[in-house]
Fold these 4 entries.
Entry 1:
Amino acid sequence: MRRVYLDHNATTAVHPEVLAAMMPFFGEHFGNPSSIHWAGREVKKYLDDARERVADLIHASPQEVIFTGGGTESDNMAIKGVAFALQDKGRHIITTRVEHHAVLHTCQFLEKMGFEVTYLPVDGDGLINLEELRRAIRQDTILITIMFANNETGTIFPVKEIGEAAREKGVIFHTDAVQAVGKLPIDLQRLPVDILSLSGHKLYASKGIGGQYIRKGTKLFSLIHGGGQELNRRAGTENIPAIVGLGKACEIAKRDFSQRVAHLQTLRDRLHQGILSRIPEVKLNGHPTLRLPNTLNMSFFYIEGESLLLNMDLEGIAAASGSACTAGSPEPSHVLLAMGVPPEIAQSAIRFSLGWANTAEDIDYVLEVLPENVDRLRSISPLYHKRKKN
Ligand code: PLP
């Protein structure tokens, strides 16, 4: 059976060039970069080099980039780090209702510690109202944390305008760019962002490695104490193979950027148009144009996204309903509900997220298999029969 993987927003396969770059660091180059002898010195060079490559992709200086254990850790370090550093100045944080749980649950934790959090609503396309953001900023606001692009719908936030609003009031701006890095141009020379989170495994590097950009002069407490690694911000011996891999993945993302984006967008639009022409009563979730080039989230009315997903899995197709971290839970997605999508339509949503290795044949296979599965599930759906009678 053909196997088609369309769940790249959940995770990606390590790129062959990344894997090749990582391999020597499990054996030949095994040193601890903090050691002063030859084994350590040799590895330290590669650590510095990887930092430069990550910085280069987002137009930052290497002194502003540290390595972490992944996107979740970067988000926690940013939000708790600012909260703890600035709690004497104020205890108010602004975020949105559609953030990843790495941000939402961190904010909820801080609420239990006495901080106050404003969760901004979004419109039907998943975007916040900038006026509402400006109005929400108070004297005691210390942090705005808003994602670069949404993991479920791909909707892209107006990061520049959000950063400008934050800067005007002297508030720190953190953005979770886990889904954006490598898929959107990010220039931190031009964007007023203070802290940015990224994750290796969404970008063809390995799992358990992430990065954090911290603009020079940004007040942030560290959460992991020990040795002085990572500019004293995150102690612990560095995961060198994964770091070298992330550096390579960033180098490739920069090298292949235009070609990758064009490829993803072409395939995504082929899938979207193909679904619209073959299946009635469907709906796009997310902004029609301000959207990640690889993401297509659609509702198939009258059926459960979860059932469709299982049926597609039997045909060798991997996609997602809701976000990967909440898959398996019967609750409709908090992102779609926040966008005002009715619960039964939210529950019928499927997210297709494409990667560089996908082909037109992959998409055509999905378009061949999907309509018959939707038809079959609709034929046994009480909702569908009720609708037909009315
Ligand atoms: N933020 C966003 C927007 C994500 O999509 C994810 C993963 O799905 C994360 C954070 C968490 O990243 P990680 O899996 O590297 O911890």
Entry 2:
Amino acid sequence: MFAKVIVDIAHSEVDRVFEYVVPEGMRVDIGFRVHVPFGRGGILREGYVIALSQTPEYSGDNIKSIHGVLSDIAALTPEQIKLAGIMRRYYHTTLAAALRLMFPAEMRGGRVGDKLSHELVFSLSDAQYENAIQTMTTAKGQPKAPKQMEVLKTLKAYGKLKAETLDELVPGSASARDALIKKGLIEKRTVETLRNPRKSADLQADYNLTEDQRNAADTILSKTGKYLLHGVTGSGKTEVYIHIVRDFLKRGKSAIVLVPEISLTPQLVEMFERRIGQEIALYHSTLTAGERYDEWKRMATGRAKVVIGARSAVFAPLKDVGVIIIDEEHESSYKSDMHPKYTAHEVARMRANIEGSTLVLASATPSVESYIKAKNGIYTLVKMPNRLFGLKLPDVEIVDMRDEVVKGNKTLFSAALHEAISEALSERKQVMLFINRRGYSTFVMCRGCGYVEYCDSCEVTMTYHSSRGKLMCHYCGRTRPLKDICPECGKPYLKHYGVGTQQVEEQTKVHFPGARVLRMDLDTTRGKNAHQAIYEQFKSGAADILIGTQMIAKGLDFERVSLVGVVAADNSLYIPDYRSPEKTFELLEQVAGRAGRKDPGKVIVQTYSPEHYAIEYARKHDFEGFFTEEMGVRRAALLPPYSVFFRFVFAGKNEDAVKQACLDFAQGFKNEFSDVFDKLLLFDFGEAPVKKIQGQTRWQVLIKVLNDAELAQFRKRLYIYTDTKRYKNCAYGMEINPLSMI
Ligand code: ADP
Ligand code: ZN
């Protein structure tokens, strides 16, 4: 027997199949992780068996043998191996790098494994026991070995005990225990214990689905396909997921449910656990390595059939995947920030195609990219337009902050917001204050008139770089000096802008001294269960005001919140990203979704740009309207989905090597693609907007092409071109439609 093995080195030079002999008597199957001798010195490396055959494909006499098997269960399913093959080309990565995504990183190098413990068992008959006691007792009736006697009696009383428990009951009993084992009086067994990361919940009966919910579930279950579920906040989407998952389980299938970040969706997890119970695995980054391994193993061995997890759960080792659900599909956390920079949607689509699964993307505010696919019939659109129990979406009031400046109000709170907070507090209701802050980008805005500095050609804001003292467009590299007089109104109010959560917290405490204030942002949620703790504190009514970043915008369901305030909508409106109107609409709609989930609620949005279409449509809760206008803007500026950005970032400690690699790549590209070069919408190369990160110099090549019938061909050529490019002392990677252009 011969095995085709991918050696676990993510380097393009060894990105191919190597063949090994399977030694007589070794049990090896597809998906097994193995040790193989590799390279000239025959050093042992880890590898993955991706195929087996009776005859070798590559003749050659010096074909080596597999050295050993790393575990007796397959680490990869055949479907996962196929998926990795597709990802390799799509994301310009190596097969090894793609395969590594499919199981916990710590399994490589054996840094995590089964948690084994020992159990001691009493299995003597009464007669045997009497006999043992006699031989262990002196003629005078004293025990010969008191510790051994005590251990034996204790174990008889309990039947069996874990080694640690026995140690607690009879301290210092280790050697007595071993002596008894030697004599054959007690037995030692090895058992596998699971590091179960959650408590078991009481199972709860299902709700009766509403008509909207039933229609949605029935449509999605009627035939295998790809669906976009557009359901407003509070329409009860989670119930629909549960219904669908349950149906697939009944058919003997498994299910993958992706959520943006598990700590932010405690309610969804709770709801699933209450209904479906022990078959659920949780899979995300805040698990310990051991917990993650155990969850992985429960899935790989078929003990768990449903996984709820962050984007990496799309690689779950489940077999027969019937359905993949992506909740809050618009969230940017579905895009990986490490190479290969995959997007969970794309991978889910590839996996659904391989496994014949149904795909469900769901959101109250679908991404422009997904919605256009629904419009074009690539996804089937399913709508849930109504909130449960006849509740209305809350009223949204827009406050023009330019008026506040004129009135001399320099605080973060407009008169309207101040009054609404006071009122909510006096009625003993809860308030959520929301600030969106992303990255360390700052844009420049006039506080007098709301004028914002944009790039002349890119439909994105210019970013202020204090190190260069200049404004810069991250999309085309153009720079401009920073002025302080506004070209629009002539007043000296042109400043870089950005409001943070701490600032809001400080001012809230000053303005509302009696209120109990909680803050939820990156700083206050570093600990493992920090989210959960803040969430529960607020839910229990231990605080009046919750201040937070986008973290608090989604998924949470607090009945007593009557007012949501968006302190600075401009924070998200002018981030240097063509998606900023979309992100703003999304955020406003999602935060509004937190208000009035029981009684009617109210939303106040503060902004210097009340006339911006994203804000205007969010005020009316008009997704269709927003989508139509946004598509107009994207079409006019030829932005995605009408085009695609490919960004290559070159990075390394050696400045010359990085620069040289980038220049070589760019020059080679120009030669190689001379026939289509003038059809490119953008070709730019040079230093990256942020020149250095963690001591690494960064250069970039940015390419923008039209999303048309020739795109697939271009992609193929690009893959072939980059596949042969290798640089010393410089790493580089590709990203498609990057989330951040720093
Ligand atoms: P969405 O995700 O669409 O914003 P959720 O799924 O969070 O909405 O549902 C909101 C609340 O309504 C949840 O607490 C849920 O348990 C409850 N709920 C959902 N469907 C029903 C139903 N058919 N009957 C009663 N309560 C329901
Ligand atoms: Zn530009």
Entry 3:
Amino acid sequence: MSTSVFISGANGFIAQHIIALLLSKGYSVVGSVRSPAKGEKLKELYGSKFQYEVVPVLEKQGAFDDALKNHPEVTIFLHSASPAAIFVEDNEKDTLIPAINGTKFVLESVQKTSPQIKRFVYTSSILTIAYRELFSDPNFVASEEVYNPITYEEGKNNTGLDAYVASKSLAEKAAWDYVNKNKPQYTFSTVNPVCVLGPQAKDEEAKGSLSSTAEIINSVYKLTKDDKISEIGGQFVDVRDVAKAHVLAFEKDEAQGKRIITYTENFNPQLILNIIRKNFPELRERLPVGDPDNVNFSSYAKIDDKKSREILGIESISLEDSVISTVEQAIRAQN
Ligand code: NDP
């Protein structure tokens, strides 16, 4: 029988790549979603080795108990579900509470309900290491040892983006605290991606406005001649590398108890535009030119991901390859 992996937030951009990779490696997968319609859609996309459970509310104690009891065959748990919206009505209710309490409660459910689960991987973020420094402080070194000191109050009282940064930072902190205090039967590790770009796992999902950061390349691809180019850039990693990192995070003994940063190179929308213009000459007429030289990242922090790279041992997909795959997929989906 194949090893069975549970993943929360199964319909998400990153989660679907993890599911596709797991199935291609012979694992079977149980995914949690918030509605039966989302589960049925995933079953159509991923076939009979994929099953789903509906868990409508993340932040309820014991929310995952029934789903876990239905699957005594599961031995690995990946927790990927978390609010990812930046524009919310209520920072606490919409972002902080589901992320932080949801993470604590799911760790507890797995410990109490599923003694056979031996490995737990949490999808964290580079933002639990730093946020503003990433773009503004070239002397800042972001590494696996650094923790973002953002507080709950800052997340509650500032912008929706601050709430997101605080939600990830405090959820990861709560997770390490839980594991250190309660000594569960599973080992625990985190994957801390920078900004995740790249194609959808399935072409069927590449239509319209895309969820999460998947929309970043798509929005540059959709620009027309007179549109302004956004200045907001960041650090890039391809979604397929993030999926690999999640799988290696439970497969490799040396990944246990570790934070694993996934990072490849820096980007901004102008650089994405330059790559599209270079590789898709047929789109040049429609796209703007912008300022092709506006691709300077000297104010960005240094990402020291040496330890993570040693653990993962994978060759990263470049921004250029990521943009090409994404645009090729957008063109296929459009046709
Ligand atoms: P998506 O928005 O595509 O996926 C988010 C998933 O979480 C969806 O399944 C969503 O369900 C679920 N979710 C959101 N809010 C809740 C909630 N309150 N209760 C239950 N489920 C919820 O985003 P990504 O794939 O990008 O994100 C996946 C994970 O990766 C998140 O933990 C995110 O913080 C993390 N991450 C993402 C990065 C990125 O650049 N994209 C970078 C670093 C970390 P539904 O569809 O029903 O809303």
Entry 4:
Amino acid sequence: MSTVRLRFINKIPTAGNSLFLVSHINQLKETEFKKEEIRQVQHALERRHPITWFKDGPHVRIVAFEEGKPESWQTDEAWRKHAAKASSSCEEQGVASLTVRNLTGDPHVVTLVAEGLLLSCYRFLKYRTGSAYRPNTLKEIRLLKDEADEKAIHETELIATATLKARDLVNEPLSYLTAEQLSREIRAMGKEAGFKVQVFNKAQIKKLKMGGLLAVNQGSPNPPTFNILEWKPPRPRNKQPYVLVGKGVVFDTGGLSLKPTPGSMDMMKCDMAGAAAVACAIYAVARARLPVHVVGLIPATENRPGGNAYAPGDVLTMHNGTTVEVLNTDAEGRLILADALSYARRYRPQLVIDLATLTGAAARAIGPEGIVFMGTASEAVKKALSESGYRVYERLVEFPLWDEYENYLKSDIADIKNIGGPNAGAITAGMFLKKFTDYPWLHLDIAGPAFLDKPDGYRPKNGSGVGVRLLFDFLKNHVTR
Ligand code: BES
Ligand code: MN
Ligand code: ZN
């Protein structure tokens, strides 16, 4: 997690470290900056360095410059990234407290910079001991009341906290985060934020005949759970709930169809990133008390090849009665999601969105830069989600669900099989899920951006927390209107 706190102040401090936000060089001329220093900033800009810093004895002054890009979402992201750079300068200098000085005249810039700073200061230190335990040096960010939008920043702080929680959950290894432990974490979040949590154990999952979740769990020494989260405010804007479904495979070995490529299993603790996004988004929505009725469904289990593991060729009967021939036990995500998607029908949902680290194919298609999505929701809903994606810079690209892909899932002996051919892997997974929906639905394949192999601005290496900011923005701006 992070130990950085935001603090609002009334007066400009006379000393200390500052981060100046500037959108035009003239803005520096009305401040304490010397002519020579302003020239230095200009030189840096000519060399395309948006960040310049000056050392005054024990303190630093950092200047972050952004004159604006063609699209507002590009400018917004530039400010977040500048904040990430400023934060690493602060770490190098051992800065503990930083005052943000907004010279741009636009309070929104402070919100973006606060967001970038908060998301940059994340560390996963739980398993570090002794001298390896190195928390970030930055502890306090001071913001001037007159220069910032306090309400927006409070909300941003809350969303950032939720995003960091999601990163923690994704970074937790299986040795800690079993399905049952994930349920305990969700319960604790529910208590803290005030949303309802119901956890079904294996016996209850059997009663519900969730054949997909039970089959995937068979080879594991640890039982599965099925988690229901619900945030229902007094007077929600939506009549029917929005249902969010998250893939909660706490570790994916591939099962008997053991992951074949060297190294491909190493990061499979991240296979519950969809679950983390759903739980943490609802946590943020509840803490912000958004007037929207949201339900979260999280099927959770390991996928392992132990004694009683399900086998290629097995035929499963799913929660909705559909039979599935399993031809690859590594295509497990769609099996547990299918049960959750058919369970979602009982809510008569206005919209269902599932998030899942579902296919390597999605990751190969567009890399960690975005989310592959598809589904049956209206064009208006797709557009709204897509706009949220640009706003929070978790961009989405739509893949088609053309009828012809149905043929890819034809089984010799059951209603469908759980894999298609070598082509269109992300889409056949989507087509499989579609069979279990009869309401407006969107599927988000986050296999690319969920777990990063190198840091990217304010996104650290490993768990990224992708989906939390996206879902919050969508639920706030689309649903509540
Ligand atoms: N959890 C994986 C997908 C994945 C791959 C997530 C890389 C994150 C990074 C999923 O369960 C899986 O194994 N998918 C298979 C499907 C195939 C067997 C049809 C895949 O993508 O190879
Ligand atoms: Mn798999
Ligand atoms: Zn998986």
